[in-house]
Specification:
With 588 residues, the chain is α+β, with helices and mostly antiparallel strands. The protein has 19 helices and 25 strands. The strands form six sheets. Strands 1, 2, 3, 4, 5, 6, 7, 8 and 9 form a nine-stranded mixed sheet that branches. A five-stranded mixed sheet has the order 10-11-16-13-14, sandwiched between helices. A four-stranded antiparallel sheet has the order 19-20-21-25. The radius of gyration is 30 Å and the shape is elongated. Bound molecules: adenosine-5'-triphosphate and magnesium ion. Magnesium ion (MG) binds next to helix 2.
């Protein structure tokens, strides 16, 4: 018979530590959370070897007396659930597990003094063995020292990455907490230098205070290119800042999400962010956001994850809806504003040019000669008044009057107070995309019969996949059917797309459908499919445009929502103010 026994406490705590303290950064996170819960206004962190040989977290919070110290390191001992209420949790901690877990796998020393006490006390636990409290000297507050993390659990030690990686993770954990607690000052240092210093600068306006903190952590660039978010629905409130799509990254690492001021990593939330930006960003690019969701305690369960990094919502649909609509709304209101980082970079490039930026005589020489082609099917015939605005009328046209086309790719326009350079392909792609969406919303895309049906070779799996979706694709304007083995034949396609590389389009669509997976309706994914269609239907770079066509493009951009970036998040145009140009030439 197997013997069933209750495990010794040290072992129980080591097992718990396996979940709670995964790496130095998780210990740092737990200790900083304790300091925040203790009401500290200043928290200083020191790391050695990425936190593996030493972590010190000092705070000026409420401290602990001798008796409290003795309890604090015991499992399931917490001061944070005074009413035994697991629903209304107002603190970051509540499980009473962090200190005993850390104490079981490291050498932990707590030194603490509550306000008014005449001395401090110190207590150590070494690999789970608790020492005796000793009188110590320390100002009001608490200092927690963790040495030799995981020395008692060598298996875990093997999973440590380089000190540098561990250090960066720890800094990231502190940054996330610091974003949500702007009134608290933080510092992180190693043996040599201070790696992060955030002063507590409480401001009367909480939005300003938060922006100041976010700027200190994420940089000026974020502040200059972020839209304030503020929305409420059904007792839920979303606030914070969302980066313009042009400020994008290769990973989701710079998406900072908070629920009731707790940093979380949550699929529902990141999915909602992705959904809101999907119109504006390629699938492999990610926006930078710092979003704070506040909701009543009973809408939320925070007790679902040992490291408290995940939460569960009572009404996930409501949460998603609020985030998607708030972000979309803000992005729409931002209209065709591209990020300043783009124009700043442009300006930098101009400045770097030597000899200085080429003069506009060359630009004028490159002025598109008279129309070689007038087959710009997808741009509706330009009405007469679309010809260039007169100089006096420039004020009314933010994108100005087209003056030249350069390299068959860029339209240079003169505005009331500067110049605008438009990427014609990116811009046109955006227009086709928006029009496509509109057409779908208005009840269907106009189709055009191909005189000679186009046969597209794929492999059998892809061909079948497309054939299965034929009725849905027809609604998008693409009529195709299976043809022999591994081929489809395309009979009709969307008028909007003009002259298109049908083979390329069909292959891309097939790839996209594979990627989206089987269990979805194309209707739901219309927007992303529209993106693919639009990309194929847009004026290619290299196509010469005549002045009427160029001006028509500018006017349509002005009239189209979201025209400041193509659906891959690249800007469609950059603007140089006259003052910028004057600076380039040293006139200012
Ligand atoms: N820096 C500190 N200042 C004052 N009291 C502290 C500090 N750190 C811990 N404590 C006290 O020790 C108790 C135990 O801390 P511990 O982190 O183990 O558990 P917790 O914070 O209550 O819950 P969790 O395991 O979810 O973090 C806390 O409830 C708190 O009363
Ligand atoms: Mg805690």
């Amino acid at each position: 018979m197997a013997v069933i026994r209750l495990l010794p406490t040290v072992l129980i705590n080591r097992i718990a530590a396996g979940e709670v303290v995964e790496r130095p950064a998780s210990a740092v996170k737990e200790l900083v959370e304790n300091a925040i819960d203790a009401g500290a206004s200043r928290i200083d962190v020191t790391l050695r070897d990425g936190g593996q040989s030493l972590i010190v977290v000092s705070d000026n919070g409420c401290g602990m007396d001798r008796a409290q110290l003795m309890l604090a390191v015991e499992r399931h001992c917490t001061s944070k659930l005074p009413d035994d209420d697991l629903v209304r949790i107002a603190t970051l901690g509540f499980r009473g597990e962090a200190l005993p877990s850390i104490g079981a796998v490291a050498r932990l020393t707590l030194t603490s003094r509550p306000p008014g006490a005449d001395q401090a006390w110190s207590l150590s636990i070494d690999g789970g063995i608790k020492g005796e409290p000793m009188p110590a000297s320390h100002p009001t507050g608490t200092r927690v020292e963790v040495r030799d993390l995981f020395y008692a659990t060598p298996a875990r030690l093997k999973f440590m990455k380089t000190p540098r990686t561990e250090r960066d993770q720890a800094i990231d954990a502190v940054k996330r907490l610091a974003m949500a607690h702007a009134a608290v000052g933080f510092s992180i240092s190693d043996d040599e230098r201070v790696m992060l210093r955030l002063s507590a600068a409480p401001l009367s306006d909480p939005t300003e205070e938060r922006l100041a903190r976010l700027t200190a952590i994420l940089g000026r660039d974020f502040a200059d290119n972020a839209l304030p978010i503020e929305a409420e629905r059904g007792g839920l409130r979303l606030s914070g800042f969302a980066g313009l799509p042009t400020l994008n990254r290769a990973t989701q690492r710079e998406q900072y999400l908070f629920v009731n001021n707790r940093p979380v990593r949550d699929k529902l939330l990141t999915g909602a962010v992705r959904g809101a930006y999907q119109d504006f960003l390629a699938g492999d690019r990610h926006p930078v956001v710092a979003l704070f969701l506040d909701l009543p305690a009973d809408e939320l369960d925070v007790n679902v994850h040992p490291a408290k990094a995940e939460v569960r919502f009572r009404d996930p649909g409501l949460v998603r809806g609020l985030i998607v609509s708030a972000l979309k709304h803000a992005l729409a209101a931002a209209g065709h504003r591209a990020s300043t980082s783009v124009s700043a970079a442009t300006l930098g490039a101009f400045r770097a040019a030597s000899p200085p930026a080429y003069g506009f005589a060359e630009a004028a020489a490159a002025f598109a000669p008279f129309p070689r082609t007038l087959d710009l099917v997808t741009l509706p015939a330009a009405p007469a008044h679309v010809s260039a605005p007169t100089d006096a009328g420039l004020d009314d046209f933010p994108l100005g009057a087209a003056r030249a086309q350069l390299h068959g790719t860029y339209i240079v326009a003169e505005t009331a107070d500067g110049i605008v350079i438009v990427d014609q392909h990116a811009a046109h792609e955006r227009l086709v995309y928006e029009r496509m969406k509109q057409a779908l919303a208005d009840g269907g895309v106009k189709r055009q019969m191909l005189l000679l049906p186009e046969i597209v070779e794929l492999d059998e799996g892809l061909a079948q996949l497309l054939a299965d979706r034929a009725p849905e694709l027809a609604e998008l304007g693409l009529v195709l059917e299976k043809f022999g083995t591994g081929c489809v034949v395309v009979r009709e396609f969307p008028v909007l797309l003009g002259e298109t590389d049908i083979i390329g389009l069909v292959r891309d669509l097939a790839d996209e459908i594979v990627e989206l997976g089987a269990a979805f309706s194309l209707k739901e994914r219309l927007e992303s499919l529209c993106g693919t269609l639009a990309c194929h239907g847009s004026v290619r770079a290299g196509r010469r445009l005549n002045p009427t066509e160029m001006n028509a493009l500018l006017r349509q951009m002005e009239a189209t929502p979201h025209s400041g970036q193509c659906n891959h998040g690249r800007p469609t145009y950059v603007e140089l103010k006259r003052s910028d140009i004057e600076r380039l030439f040293g006139r200012r």
